[in-house]
Amino acid sequence: MTAPNGNSSNPTRRLKLLMSWEGFLLAVLCLVFAVNASMSHAFFTVANQINLFNLSIEKIIVALIMTFIIINGEIDLSVASVMGLSACTFGWLYHAGVSAGLAIVIVMGVGFVCGAFNGFFITRLGIPSLVVTLSTLIGYRGLARVLVEDRGINQFPEWFDALGQQPLLGPFPLSLIIFFVLFIILGFVLHFSGFGRRVYVIGNNAEAATYSGVDVAEIKMKLFIASSTISALAGLLFAARVGAVRGDVAQGFELDIITIVLLGGVSIFGGSGSLLGTLLSILIVLSLRNGMDLANITGHIQTGLIGLLLILSVLIPNARIYASRFLQAKPS
Amino acid sequence: MISSALEMRDISKNFGAVKALSHFTIALKPGEIHALVGENGAGKSTLIKIMTGVHPPTSGEIIVNNRPITFKNTQDARDLGIVAIYQEPMVFPDLDVIENIFISDKKSGAFVNRRKMRSDAQTLMQRLGLSFDLERDARSLTLAEQQTVEIARALSMDAKVIVMDEPTASLSAHEARQLRNIAKTLKAEGVAVVYISHRLEEVFEIADRVTVLRDGQFISTRDIGDVTTDSLISEMVGREVGEFFARVPSKARDNVRLRVFNLAREGVFESISFDVRAGEILCMAGLIGARRTDVALSIFGIAPATSGEIEVAGKKVNIQTPRQAMKLGIAYVSEDRRKLGLLLPMPIFANASLATLDRYISPWGILKRKAELSMAETFRERLNIRAPSVTTNVSDLSGGNQQKVMLAKWLNMRPGILIFDEPTRGIDVGAKAEVHKIIHDFAAEGGSVLLISSDLPEVLALADRVLVMREGRQMGIFDGDSATQLSIMNYATGQNITREVA
Amino acid sequence: MVRFPIKFAPQNLRIFGLIVVLICVLLFFATQIHNYLNKDLFIRVSTSVAIMALIAIGQTLVILTRNIDLSVGSVVGFSAFFLGGLLTRNPNINPLLVVLAGVGFGSLFGMLNGLLVAYANVPSIIVTLGTMALYRSSLVQFSGAKSISTASLPQWLVSLPQMNVISVGGYDIRVTFVITLVVLLMAHFALTRLRGGRHFYAVGSNPAAARFAGINVNWTVFLAFTLSGALAGLTGFLFLARFGNITVVAGLGFELKSVASAVVGGVNIFGGSGSVIGAFLGAILVDVLDTSLVRWEVISEFWREAVLGALILLSVTADTLLSRKLLAISLKRTKSTQEQMATFQDSLTTRKGP
Hints:
- The complex is a heterotrimer.
- By secondary structure, chain A is mostly helical.
- Chain A has a single domain (about 40-320), classed as ABC transporter involved in vitamin B12 uptake, BtuC (Orthogonal Bundle), CATH 1.10.3470.
- Helices cover about 75% and strands about 5% of the residues of chain A.
- Chain A contains 15 helices and 4 strands.
- A two-stranded antiparallel ribbon of chain A has the order 1-4. A two-stranded antiparallel sheet of chain A has the order 2-3.
- By secondary structure, chain B is an alpha/beta fold.
- Chain B has 2 domains: about 5-240, 3-Layer(aba) Sandwich (Rossmann fold), CATH 3.40.50; about 280-300 and about 320-495, Rossmann fold (3-Layer(aba) Sandwich).
- Chain B contains 17 helices and 20 strands.
- In chain B, a hairpin with a 2-residue loop joins β9 (about 210-215) and β10.
- Chain B starts with 5 loop residues before the first strand and ends in a 9-residue tail after the last helix.
- Chain C has a single domain (about 10-325), classed as Orthogonal Bundle (ABC transporter involved in vitamin B12 uptake, BtuC).
- In chain C, strands 1-2 form a two-stranded antiparallel ribbon.
- In chain C, a hairpin with a 2-residue loop joins β1 (about 165-170) and β2 (about 170-175).
- In chain C, α2 (about 40-65) packs antiparallel against α10, α3 runs parallel beside α5 and α3 packs across α10 (about 215-245).
- The chains are: A mainly alpha, B alpha/beta, C mainly alpha.
- The interface of A and B includes residues 194, 198, 204 and 212 of A.
């Protein structure tokens, strides 16, 4: 795992970086690119790449903030349910007569509240995030179903659908632009800001952080609010892209999202990982899916293979550690 | 001729190029308490690990029952009755005492017989001279009680050799006495007890023989009657002792920087009142369990007081969080550097800037990496931190250097009040002297120091004044110049000690 | 001295509390829903709980060791499908063999999980997230986009859900319910009276201490996952019997429900404490709420999930706050005893010099 905020000013460090997980991912990515390109000439076209991103754009946007959460030593299982809730709330509000613009604002507020709710139980009551977000995964999804029941809501304003489906800047739709902007901002925050440093520190040793004056509760609360707010945004983007909402919008997405982040080299125990790793992982997973589509591998098998990839992503480093420990007995 | 319980002949252990242990020989007799002394890094823990099957020796033999044995793992050692008990209690918090004792019992069959287990547990506890509620979950036991449960577990497995690694380091005086009695009981039952302790007075109280280690080498094994404190220390250190216990005249100034009045935390400590002037070193002495750390944590805002007053530079303050304390210029250097003081997998510079991170964040929120690194470099020189560079991970440093990194973190804050909890615990003699000098320099520049220490010679050397605590109460404050080990111990144990300590 | 058979411990307090809550819920709905408390309720709940409780028991075994098994839903679905296919092609197989096949089939999946978690040292949340997807996709592949239909299943299986072991005054006690009860009692016995069962608790309570004490931690964890898979396989059998028509999405979401039942039932998510009885009661409570909400006219049936989520959060919060309070009280008691002992037993300190 790479050291956070690593300083690249000396050559040994650069070498370490290359041999790190990110370097490994880069190699895998090149491999996947090569295989895909050999299968189809259309792979590297702009249209294909954009389409590739578009199909999973909501997931990969949330993966960016999930990176923070897991580095911080927590987990947020409720992200997909917040996506669903936000999409359904939007549909419900719009069809109740609220203007789309206002509905969007309210939905973002709902996202904020969901995150604060999670954060309250985690930071004020000290209940493990796994349990809290497991309950809200069920609870928020339930609220979505209360709003939408078993119907589907479509017929959104044209401009809304257009934003979700048509390109906005050149060939890039709004969602892709949001992804890139978020990547840059969040990457900056995680790797170059004081807040990012604190995220790593808390993930490493929350108690030592407290004893050094870091306000752990505040940072965790902020992260969970950010997670749910961005998930709400992703839900809106989903609604715009698909043009309709149902109670099961984004159901099960959390697993893909967590898989992407863990594959990217973020340790499930917290304290290490990078947004670059997450980006590489995103590229690999998306290209893999595309390549598998090209090879006529069905969606379900793709999911299974991604699951396998997740396991291997921890298995292989473990094997390396065992091998090196075996070769030179180290003092514990 | 009595055969030994355990013999180690010419044991050496290398980790790569590091020679942790060289040509070590020892023969433990059944029914003896055999003390093992040596500085940190002398090789004691490596020895224990080899003895209990954690590591195989690089060369040499282990003899049990007159047969050479190879341990494949700790289970092999356990099967032969060799068990170690460490400071970290290895109990199961969710299970009760009875189950904790018998959980790994392999001889009683597949079914659990509660009644038999309970009566066996009672018998064991009586043998050890203890009585407490066996139905309690181990979580609700004190550290000392958890240790006794471990010892009972070892006994239940017919242990022949029990190694105790610093067993009394975190115990109160009363608990430590109980533990020493248990060691004597074990000895009476024919168990060979290997007793590792930094507290030489304990060694003299209960040990039959004492073995000294230094730099991985076997130095000597002698009967306890043939050694003195000075002879032991000089063997441990390899030179004559005395120099670094010299006192330095007080640099205390007139202005009071910290004043504490009737400070109390319900159920923990009460009626604590003292003041510390600029340039002064106030030592909080007492035995472990006196609750000195709790007083420090209440001043630092981790576990705030429930009543009483705190004044900083003459102004009354209410400290509820560490941040508030730090804003008032109060720094707390923790006694547990691995768990609370440092981020082990992170580099030196990240640790050094942790308490003052805001200083290295630009208005836009960006980290000022260069400033951070140069600050770390400055401290590396100033505190003589031995490391390849400031980007080295703290986990790769020795204990003494880790302590210095922790100090750098707090000194960078330029605190007015430095609370230092057990400054030299677990670091070697050389680093000890360096840390003492840093404290003196800090005071000389006008800083106030509140020093918590269980090391009496250290207290006598550093203190301008000494505050003695016992079991959460303040027993007295007196002048550093006139304090003696005797007078401090008097107050610390609440007794009048009639026999002189040399 | 007569010992009260049940320890006055937080664990049992929890189960007692659960029973009280269950009674309150039943009474509440009795006031709200016409003709609520009757044999139909008993039959309906016992039938559906038979399935949920089984995987809740399996999940408890895993959680006790400080792990989690998110793949149970996929295993249930795959097992149901596998058995359905087996029976469709060989309708004359001995029923007992079918059950054993289900258990064995599920065990294989469990063993793979166990190998990865216990021996390859991969965290269970990662392994079972991965195998959840892997097993589900294998099911899809295996099914060849077909599904099992009731028409192709043998009669004994289709009528199994209606079969009673005994019927007391109209209260039918179904075979499926009895199967689950038997498994429950066996699991409870194993966890409380077998040394190997106690090891589950030790491993979850303090894995390092367990290793140190000579317990084979890897084997215990491996066993927990294998049993969880086995029970999921058995559940697949019951699922097949109950629903008959099996598609590739069978069992989707079961893992969350099983964790929910366990957590509501007082099983500590960090391992080391909890009981299968609690998980069973938790499954009942969840099921009762589910069924009752559907029939309650005041709010729409779509509140089911939201209520479930709230219920889990509520029970964990209550657990956490309660156990903190109890620990504080017990520590205070310890300290005052210590102080008494200290003042009482203080003797002259003798210090021997060199």
